[in-house]
Structures are given as structure tokens and as C-alpha cells.
Amino acid sequence: MKKNYILILGIFFSLSAYSQTYNTDFEDLSLAVDTFWNGVDQTGQFTSNTVVFRNIYDTAWGGFWSAGASYSTMRNDSIAGSGNQYSCIAGEGYNSSQTYAVFTPNNDTALVVPTSAVFISGFWINNSTYAYLSMKNGDSFAKKFGDTLNAAGINDGTNGNDWFKLTIYGDYSDSVEFYLADFSGPDSSDYILKDWTYVDLSSLNRNTRSLKFKMSSSDVGTWGMNTPKYFCMDNFEYQGVLSINELSENSISVFPNPTKNKLNVQFDEIINNASYKLIDITGREVISSSVNGVNSLNLDLSNQNNGVYFLTITIDNKVITKKIIKQ
Prior knowledge:
The protein is mostly beta strands. 4% of the residues lie in helices and 44% in strands. The chain folds into 2 domains: 6-240, Protein of unknown function DUF4465 (Jelly Rolls); 244-326, Sandwich (Immunoglobulin-like). The protein contains 2 helices and 24 strands. The strands form 4 sheets. The protein has a 15-stranded antiparallel beta sheet that branches. It has a 4-stranded antiparallel beta sheet with strand order 21-20-23-24. Strands 18-19-22 form a 3-stranded antiparallel beta sheet, with no helix packed on it. Strand 4 and strand 5 form a beta hairpin.
């Protein structure tokens, strides 16, 4: 039986509690046309429209991007090989946008959204130029999809029923599968994705805050998958809780931010029936407490590692999230 583009696992949750849509389209990142950011500054991550994307840059052998996410404005849809690993086969981002993300997953957390109350909607996906041309034409390492022979010219036993798949994992062992190429059905339905296509993630648990990506292929050799392990992303969407407090979040001041040790939280009035959590970039809760009858908080971050945190304050079931940077 022919596989669908998307295999959805789980139960659809209502969006009724989530009243504001956030769209991470990467256009807020300052990047000239036909260039890319690959983590050479060794910051280990970048942030676009509040969503944090992990990056691993290896300094060995002169330095190279080894895993996670990069972002790009490359428009090259015709040059094959690893020298063109930052381009999308569409030659642009979704809906003719300039900037998009490129991933080479390492099965670890790839992105984190900034609030504990969230419903991830989905994102637009496409093949990289590198992966697309490798599957279409074959190269010195990877086979031509639909062929019965591998890159060495030996029958690989697949009978040409090739496929290239991305598995997206949430925080609760649930997942969504998406086929970037599939030659396992009738010849008339064989395809290698070339157009931006939406991946629906509404089946993931509604409190999922981070995603992990794993890629697999029918073309496997002695050292693992031969198909280039890349995909492109644009317009990542999630629903966030919008409350009265969030509409007037200027009533809460957080300083200094960035901070080295102490963090002060000031409210414009005395708060009751409140609680707060400080969550690190992996989604781990590092500080939490209930508060009542106060108009300020003083948090000690001296024992926390440097990096990005999210301070979630709940007042009478209304939620505000502040991004905190520990230096």
C-alpha cells in the first residue's frame, strides 16, 4: 500500500485554549542574500521569533557544521554535492520568502518553544538541494532512487522501492512521520519532494515544548545512511496562551536581563494565588515556587549554567512567559 505524506499518531486536541498563533518565519534574522549562518561563532543556538534552534559546530579539521539547525538565504537549486548543503531545492523559502532553516539532525533536541502552555501546529518542509539531487541522480556515496543498484553498481535488494523519511518526536514519546521521497508504491506515485509542503503536528501532546528529529532512508551502507541527512524548514507555527495578563505584560518588569547572578521580578501591584517556574532550554524545571501577597521576586541564578531560560509566571491561571539570559 502506498504511504501517505504524513502518518499522524495520537489524538487531536482542541485549540480553544490557545488564542494566539506565533509564526517563526526566520525573516527576523539579519542575513544577506545567498549567504548562511552555520554556527561558526560557536554560540550553539540561534533564536527566531522566540523559538530557540540548537546548533552544533565542530572545530576539528578547520571547523564545520555537524548537526542541528542553520539558517540560510541560499538560492542554488542546481549544484549537487556537500558544497551546496545550505540550499533548498525550491530556490527560496516558503511562499517566496528569503530566509529559511536547514537541518541535519542528530536525534537530540532540535528546537524549543518559549512557553510551557503551548500547542505546536506544524511547519513547512522541503528537501535540501544536496539531498534532492543525490536522490534524483545518485552520486559517489548514495544511489539514484528507484534504481535497483546502489552507488557501487551492485544490486542492493530494494527492487527500487526507495524512501527517505523524517520522524518528528515530541516530549511525550509521540511522533509524526513525513516522507521526503517515496518510491515504494506504483511508479505513477513515486516522488522526491520539491515543493514546500505543510507538516501537521497537531497530533502531538498539546504541552510539547521541544522537538527532536530523526532521518532514515532505504539506502543504507556499512557506515549508516547514504542519503544526505538534510531537510529545510520554514514558517514554524505554534499556539500560545493569550490571557489578560499577557495583554498587559508590561506590568511585570524583569531585571537585569541578561543577568549574571540575581534576577529581580517587579509587579505593578501585589499579587496573590501565583506561582512561577524557571525552565532551561531543554525543558527542565530548575526553580519553582508558589507566592502570595508580594509585589516582587528575587531569584538567585548563580548556581545555574549560562544560557537561555524561560520564566513562566502564573497568576489566577493566567500565564506570562519571559525569556531570561544567564551570562
